Each structure stands twice: as structure tokens, then as C-alpha cells.
Amino acid sequence: MKNRQITWFLGLLLTTSLLLPAIGNADEVFVFTAQQNNHIRALAASCAACHGTMGNAVVNKSTTSAASNAQEGNAVLAGMDVADFSSKMLVFRDGSRKSTVMHHHAKGLSLDEIKQLAMHFSQQKRLLVVPFSAQALKAEHDPL
Amino acid sequence: MTHFSRRDFIKVAGLSSALLASGHAAARATKPPMGRVVIIGGGYAGATAAKYLRLWSLGAIEVIVVEANQQFVSCPLSNLVLGGSKTINDLTFGYDALKANHGVKWLQDTVTAIDTDAKKISMLRGELSYDRLIVAPGIDFNYDELPMLASAEAQQQVPHAWKAGWQTVNLRKQLEAMADGGVFVMNVPKAPYRCPPGPYERVCQVASYLKLRKPKSKIIVLDANAEIISKKGLFTKVFKENYAGMIDYRPDHSIKGLDLATKTVITDFDNVSADVLNIIPPQRAGKIAQIAHLTEKDYPWCEVDFLSYASKLVEHVHILGDSVAAGLPKSAHMATNQAKVCANAIVQLMAGQLPDPAPVFANTCYSFISDTSAMHVVNVYRYDAGKKMMLSAEGGGVSLSPSEKEAGYAVAWSQNIWADTLT
User: Fold this and answer.
1) CA nearest B73 in A: which residue?
2) Nearest-neighbour CA in chain B from A22: distance (Å)
3) pLDDT band at B6, cuts 50/70/90?
4) What pLDDT is attached to residue B22?
5) Which residues on chain A are in Cβ contact (under 8 Å) with B383?
């Protein structure tokens, strides 16, 4: 009975990751539990420096930023399709898609992590995030 | 501290966390309160830990941040103030959004002592008890070998500009006042220090400004290290090609003495006189970490368990950011990564569970070599159970060359990390 449940769960995971040529072994899949979610939410949160909280990257409406080629914004990962995320990461990972930084990140992640990140970001709610407004530095701020 | 006095605060802080939290956070507080975490420091590490503790505990952990300053000033991008393409007001933010969006409580105060046995902290204006304490004080400058720079007056004359704020503005003003043909002298302290590529980015930013406005000027860099310690190939090329004839880079040059009146630096090899002098002093863990004995006597950084950032010396105290002894870059992105792993672990620990046994995170670090061009270094770090530390994983690397495209990504990095940390 227990085995059947594991097989069913494994099958479910496989169907959500058909694009990945090799997924983690059965042991890894079996521990896809609360602990695993815990692991992946912290890894996913590491992406926030460029892709925003829970994958909701800041979107620029204008292009008046200091850099001359200031762009609309980095990819919004929240709500991204699992297959779309996975395939993009895989071509970054094998170098077949050129990038400035993403190949350096993708090569550091296991296929299992890419799969779990894809699932994690696909489940996040998409929100519109605009740049946070700066303010004038006050005179009383620590002079040193 | 806007809507209630300290006395009210102490009084109500003992009640359920939901009482004080904003409506938004209170609605999420579906679990019973799990306890109180006090965070010392509202920089990248402290602010991020506060937000993610609230998010991941679904509002069940009460979070109180104690920060001396009213505003957040970003060190990342602050070299651009010296170059002239940013002002300090582009890099300064308030904490109101963080407080309101996540029900984070806030005290503007300075921590003077930690009683780790009684689990409470003392501030200039009161005391607070904690279940767990996060210490994220950033760096402290060590003036033992530069006693002439220890006073506030000396630091106005010779700014460090290594904590962004009025010091950054001061150095920019000195550069603006310097005549064409002047000499700018700066040092690089012995590693480890905050932001490994930062001094070399600063050289580029000052060079970019001088090349445009004061092309007869020179830059002398006195590096206490044997070589450029971050993005070496890229910076070497930029110094030589983009700023040819302008930068005199001298490795292995430790500062042995300093004459303030003439702005003359004495090294083992030479005496170097400056029109504008920028000394970045050697660094150690933030002052409160030393006061509370979170560092060993002979090593000025805090040793932690990399699964939870718990101090190896004291129970129920976690340490984050630049104060941590890690052998990893002391960067803003690393500080936020550590904060997230720590917040994740604290939520687990307070619920009686073990923390994630195998944390993984990435560091993305951009340096601007002019007002329009930037380059990166990236690393993925993975916990090594045998060595009990975070080690560089496969992948990682630096830009092939600086580009305008990467300057756009660097701006996007800043916008996203500010929104992630402060809203």
C-alpha cells in the first residue's frame, strides 16, 4: 500500500517535470516534504536580489534610469509556467542560450533544484511591483 | 516609533503580537504566537531577516528591530555618488513600508549591552527581552594602527566613505573641490573587509569623473593586499585601457603612518602626498558583537553554524551579514541570503523542528567601471556537511568584459534588492 502511494507521488512529480531529462533519484523525491519546501523557499528567495520577492521583479514604466539602456525590468518568475522556467534554465545551464549572468547561476544548480524552483515560482501569485521610492538623506543621519 | 511612546510599547509588547501588528499581518496570524525575535541592526541583513521571519512564520513570530539610524542608506551603488552619476538621495530609503507591510516593530535606539543569560538587551533608552536574538551590526572600523584617524574631526578631513551616508557626500565634495592636476590617494585594507571589489570599483568611479572633468589628475592606490582581490583580470584591464596613464596601482603597500596636516601617507616603500585622501580602515565585526563577546579574543569576526547562523559561542543568538566569519564575500546579497537561511531556521527551531540541513544560495555582485558600464561576479554556494561551511558550487564566474547591458542589469539588481529588503 505504501509503495503504491510512493509510486503515485513519483508519477505525479514526473508528469510535472517531463522536460527534465534526469530528475533526482527516488530517495530525493521521497523527501519532497515540508522540509523540502523549506529548503526550496530559501533557495528561491536567493533569486530575489534580481527577480524580486517571491519572483515578482520590479517593473520600470519609464527608462529614465541612470544606465543608458535601463530596461523594463528583469524576468518576473512569479506565476511562470513550469515548462517555460525549466526549459529556460536548462538552456542557460548547457550554454546553448547566451546570457550575461544566468549561465553562471544555472550551472551551480542541480536538475532537481531547477525542477523544484520551477514548481515553486509557478505557484507564486503575480503582483505588479514598482521601484521603491528613495528619499532625501536627513541631516541627523550618523555623520560617521 | 511613530504612533506610541516607549512606555506604551513596553507595556503592550507583552501582549499578543497580533495586537500591535498591522491589519494585514494580523489577518495572516493564523498560528498562535511562537515567541519574540529581537534584531539588532536594520541594514540589508537585519531588515531582510525581519521581513522573512514575519512572512514565513505567517505572522506568528513577533519581530522587533533596533536600529540607531532613521534611514537606510545603500552601500551598493554608493561609489556612483563619487563618480557623479548618482546622488546620496537616490540611495536613501525609509523603513515605513517594511514596518507597515509586515507588522515589524521598530525602535530607533542604540544597543549598549546584551545579557545572554537573562536573554535581554539594554539600549540607551530601555531594555528588551528576547527568545532569540539576531545581531546584524555590519562592520566596525579598527583604528588601533591608525590612531590619528580615530577622531570625528580627522574622519571629516580624511573620509573613509565605507559606510554610505554623509561620509560619501563628504568625499564627493572634496573631489569636486580638487583642482585639475590634483592627486587622489586611496587605500585598500587587508582582506577580509566589506565588499571585496568595492575599492577597485571606487578607483574606476573616481577615474571616470576625473577623466571627464579633471583629466590632468592622478590616482594612487595603496593596496595592503598582494594583488587585486576581486575581478582581478577585469579591473586590471579597465585600469590599463579605460583609464590609461591615470591610475598608479601599488600592491603590498600597507599604511605605516599618516600625517594629517599634509595628507601624507607613509608606507614601507614611500611617502605619498594627496590633495584628496580616502583611507578605508581595517575592519572587524560590529561594535555590539565585540561588547557582547560574540567574537573570540584573537579573531575579530563571529563564528557561526551555517545552518542557522547561530553563534558558536552563545546560545539563542544568531549573527548575520558582514560580522560573520565566513571566508565568503561580505556583500549585500550575501547578507540577505544569510538572513533568509537564518529566518527559515528560526521559524523551524521555534516550532521544535530542525533547520534545513543543506542550504544553497547565490551571490550576484556588480561593479560599475563608469557611469554606463558594469561587470559581474557570480557564485552559487552550497553547504558542505563534512566541512560544515558554505562552499562554492559548480558554475559561477565573471563577465567576459564590462558592458552597458550589464549596467542595466546592475540597476535592476539594486531596484530588486531594495524592494525585497525594504518593502
Assistant:
1) A137
2) 18
3) very low
4) 37
5) none
Report the residue from A101, A132, A138 with minimal CB separation from B423.
Answer: A132
Q: Is B150 on the interface with A (CB under 8 A)?
A: no
Tell me the per-residue pLDDT of B313-366, one tens digit each, with 9 for 90 and over.
999 999 999 999 988 999 999 999 999 999 999 999 999 999 999 999 999 999
Of B216, B249, B282, the last residue of a domain is B282
User: Where do the H-state alpha helices sit in B57-128?
Assistant: 79-83, 96-102
B138 to chain A: which residues are within 8 Å by CB?
A: none
End residue of a domain, out of B356, B390, B406: B356
Domain boundaries, chain A: 2-60+71-122
Residue B288 sits in the same domain as residue B179: no
Q: Which of the residues B82, B170, B356 would you substitute to probe the A interface, choosing the one with the greatest number of A C-beta atoms within 10 Å?
A: B356
A123 CB contacts (<8 Å, ≥6 apart)?
Answer: none
Query: Considering CB atoms only, which of A69, A103, A137 is closest to B165?
Result: A137
Given CATH 1.10.760.10, say whether it is the number of domain A2-60+71-122. Answer: yes
Write the DSSP string, A44-113. Answer: HHHTHHHH-GGG--B--SS--SSSTT--S-SPP-TT--HHHHHHHHHHHHTTSS--SSHHHHHTTS-HHH
- Print the domain residue range for B43: 6-68+109-140+284-356
Q: ipTM score of the complex?
A: 0.89
Rounded CA-CA distance B291/B136 in Å is 14
CATH number at residue B206: 3.50.50.60
Same domain membership, residue B243 and residue B197:
yes
